[in-house]
Amino acid sequence: MTTALALIAAVLTAGWGTAHLFPTRSVVRGFGEISTDNERVITMEWILEGVTLIFVGALTAAVTLLGDPSSTTATVAYLASAGLLVVMAAVSVLTAGRNEHIAYRLCAPIFATSAALLVAAAVS
Question: How far, in Å, CA of 103 to CA of 17, rounded?
Answer without folding.
Answer: 12
